[in-house]
Every structure is written in C-alpha cells, then in structure tokens.
C-alpha cells in the first residue's frame, strides 16, 4: 500500500471509530486518497457521504448537518483555492460554535513556493477561526506512523467537540501515487491495530463524567510539568499503593511513594520487563527522560488527565483515554508492587550517591542534588532547560518545602535570567536559579535593572562548562571534526566580570562542601561553578553503569520483581 492511501485509510477509520457519521466531499485530484477512503466507508455502511461540486457549498452543507446533529462533520477538498473557499463556512462555524473537521489536501513541502500547480500556502490558512490546526505532514512508510495518525484523528475529534465546539483544521500533504495500484506490498505495520474502539477515548469534565481508573495495585502515577491538582492525585496514588514518578517541575516529588531514580530504573530492560503496569495515569507534560517516555508505551492502559481536550500531552501517542478529571480508587492487597519499585529505587540512588560523593569536586549532577537538598523551606528554584533540569530530575531526592519551576512549555534556554528575577519578585521566600553558562549569557541583559527597580532575593547559580554541555551526551559528540565549533559552542567570557558589570556579589564555588555558604546571603547575587564538559560526559557514564548494576543486583536477589 502506498503512503497516501495508508494515511487516508487510517485517518478516516479512526474518525469513524470516534463517531463520525457524515462527511461532505468536494472532488479533486490531490484529495483522491481521502475521497477513496470515504467512499469505501460509505459502501460498508459506516458513513453518509455527501458530494458537492462547489467547495463553498460543501463547507456550508457540512455546517448545516453539524448544526442540527450537534456532532462533528468532516468536510474534504483538494489543494489550492479549493481550501480558501472553505473559509466563510469555517468562520461561521467558529463564531457559532459548530463542530467541523476540515480536511484540506495539500502538495508536499518540496512543491511549495516552486510555482507548482494548485499549490498555495495552506498552513494555518484559517487563522484564529479554528479551535486547532495541524500540519499532518507527508506520510512515510515507517513504524510509528499509524499511532501518530490515529492519535491525531482522536485529538481532532475531541477538539472539534465539547466543551467548546468549533472547527478544526488538518492540512494533509500527499505525495504521488495518490491511488492504490495492483501488486503493492503490505504496509510495514498493521493499519487496523486490532482495535475494538478508538485509539484514544476522550471524556470531558461534565457532571458525572469523572473517569474511574481501573482498580489495580499495579499502577503508576507520572507527573510532568504543568500538572494541576497534584496533591489530590498523589494522595490517591499513595492509597492505591502506586509509585509516583514526578519530574521536578511536576511538584509531586515528596512523600514515601515518590521515586528519585526512575530515570535509571527504566533504563534497565530486566526491570522494565518485570514492571509492566496495568495502568499509568499521567498529569502534566512529561518529557525529560527518554526511558520514561518509552515506558509509557508499555502500559496496558495509559490515562492522560488534561485540562484541555484540544491540547493533551501525549508525546509518544500512547494515550488510551483522556479525561479532564479522573478518580484513582483505593485498592486492597499487598504492597509487593510498591516494595519492588522502592527496593530498586533505593539501590540505584545509593549507587548514584556513592559515585557523586567519592570526591569533593564540583560536578553538575552533585551540584543539582545538593542544591535542592540544602535550600531552606519555602524556597523557589528555577532550573534551566537542557542539562540543569535533567540533572535535578535524575538525582533530586524527595523533599517538601521547595517549589521547582522551569520554562518547560517550549523548553528553550532564552529569557531565563529575566524569568528567574520575575518569579523571585513574586515569591514570598528565598529564590534560586540553576542555569547553564549559555542560558545565562543568552539573557544577561535581564540583569540590567534601573536604580529605582526592586532587586529580588535571588541567588543565580551558573554552571560554567564553557559551552553547551548537553551536546556531549548526544550522538553529535562522535563527530570530533565539527563538534566543538558547531555544537560545543565554546566561549571565553569571564563571568566574574559580568557580575561586576552589574554590581552583583560574586562567589566562585571551589568545592561541594562550600555550597551552603556560597548560596547563602540575601539580595541579587551570583555563584559560579566551573566544570568540564568531557569529564561530565564520562561521569554520566559512570552514574548510569553504577545505577544499572545496582538495580540488576536487586533483581537477582529477588527484591526487585
């Protein structure tokens, strides 16, 4: 099967599973894959298909059907001005709250801006008049595409419907061939997925619609950035006997059920094989740990709790249910599941600590661990994107009394000095920031404060490894020729002079035992910790080896599953 046919087949099938019963088609060439998929669904009796010659008429016909039925209706056209002719009906649907799923076929990216026939700029063509827009991308034959397409269709259906119905726009780029041909090979993965229902079941927060999580002791609560109602869900997970895997900015790394070394645990295949959960409940947006993201795919049921049904966090497309509210039931039974997680977590944490505490030298992971530990109660800590927040995630021990924030929406390193200062001004206790040198230099203008401006109680701790340390942990590090200049991005800035230029008290951290004194004090101040990127990469390898070895030893002893 060719990629265009595969995408159209899966997209239409998933919309049908979600509840699509009517579609309106304005015929064209580039939209042929969608037209054929809709026609096949009509022949099978799954769909009422309405065909209109004029795109404007087609869109308004879909509007009328949706207005009366109250259900999303799909409307399909080819590329070019055909898509533009949908615009009046899209605006009407937006203003009157009518659910439409607008599917515009498009030329692939390589044909855009070339003078190719019937090719215009269709990206966000309808501006703010849609609840959600997505550039689907030209389909490719590789594993994982089916999950992407089905998840995408489910999100489109949810975004078009309750609680704020309106139009959504999927712009679908197709490369030729556009129709199936005899003798085509089978697709690289099953297109139907052996599904009995939709890929993702979505539940809006209406009275009586709280999702009841399946009763099981073999559950896991995952808490990422931006989570809400955290204490409620942590308490429920604790009563159910579940471990809690919380990113630092998730606000749930406290209490007996919170694990600090899940990143290392989930990097051990033997542990993961023995700890496949029956259900995972996710709050907020996880994204720091690749092993954690891979783990989400292994859950029998993955429930995402999200305030918005138009934008729910599901980076690996594994969500089986999405709800605005969920209830984790108290489950009777032994605590073998939780004990197994704890035993492995304790062993990994002890192994990591042994490596970090072997010397008093300043290292980035130890600085992250010890900084969180020594902060006084009611503290605020901003951790920069890239390595600092990941170090905190991997080695922070559970504790209360510290709120950790970061700019994890887009995960950029820009504006972090200014963000930290703004947050400190609004915080009622002591504040701290843990930044890399590039993040600090990128926003050093944030230190320019007028003489009448309030200066916050903020200690800015800058890890200076003379460049972008995270790249030393990525495959780019294996390219010694271009690596240092185009990835390592070294600099020769003396940060003490930057501090002096802005009148900031400055401290150079020489050893980890000096950390409590170095970050003490009041007012806006700066602490520099110099590290070496190559040594840091080697330390990461030792930490991983020690933690994985400790987890395997626990498994061999029978305490870890």
Question: Layout of helices and strands, plus pairs?
Answer:
Layout: H1 3-18, E1 22-25, H2 32-43, E2 48-51, H3 55-69, E3 73-77, H4 81-84, H5 87-96, E4 100-106, E5 132-135, H6 145-160, E6 167-173, E7 201-203, E8 211-212, E9 219-223, H7 230-240, E10 244-246, H8 262-265, H9 269-274, E11 279-283, H10 290-296, E12 302-305, E13 321-323, E14 326-327, H11 336-356, H12 364-374, E15 379-383, H13 387-395, E16 402-405, H14 416-426, E17 431-436, H15 437-442, E18 458-464, H16 480-488, H17 495-501, E19 506-508, H18 515-519, E20 524-530, H19 533-556
Summarize the structure.
This protein has 561 residues and is an alpha/beta fold. The protein is built from 19 helices and 20 strands.
Question: Which features does this protein show?
Answer:
6-stranded parallel β-sheet, alpha/beta, Rossmann fold, 19 helices, 3 domains, globular, 561 residues, 20 strands
Question: How would you characterize this protein structure?
Answer:
With 561 residues, the protein is α/β, with parallel strands linked by helices. It has 3 domains: 3-193, Thiamin diphosphate (ThDP)-binding fold, Pyr/PP domains (Rossmann fold, 3-Layer(aba) Sandwich); 211-335, 3-Layer(aba) Sandwich (Rossmann fold), CATH 3.40.50; 364-530, 3-Layer(aba) Sandwich (Rossmann fold), CATH 3.40.50.970. It contains 19 helices and 20 strands. A 6-stranded parallel sheet has the order 2-1-3-4-6-5, with helices on both faces. The longest helix has 24 residues, at 533-556. The radius of gyration is 27 Å and the shape is globular. The chain starts with a helix and ends in a 5-residue tail after the last helix.
